[in-house]
Amino acid sequence: MKRAECLFCLLSLKLIYKEITIAIIKKRKHTNNKNKVSFL
Predict the structure, then answer these.
(1) Is the dihedral of CA 26, 31, 34, 38 positive or negative?
(2) Where on the tree of life does the source sit, at the highest rank (predicted)?
(3) How confident is the model at residue 30 (pLDDT cuts 50, 70, 90)?
């Protein structure tokens, strides 16, 4: 059960991280396209 919980936590954190990075990319897309590469 602990392993499954840890995996779920990691997956949720990864999804949150992806959403945050996508939001940052969208915000900075018009200022600089080079930032997009650094976040990928």
Answers:
(1) negative
(2) Bacteria
(3) low
| Percent of the chain whose pLDDT exceeds 70 | 70
Cβ atoms within 10 Å of 25's Cβ, excluding its own: 16
One-letter amino acid at 13 equals: L
Q: How many CA atoms lie within 13 A of 12 on its CB side?
A: 6
Q: How many CB atoms lie within 10 A of CB 3?
A: 7
Check pLDDT > 60 for residue 35: no
In sequence order, the 6+-apart residues with CB closer than 8 A to the CB of 39 are 21, 24, 25
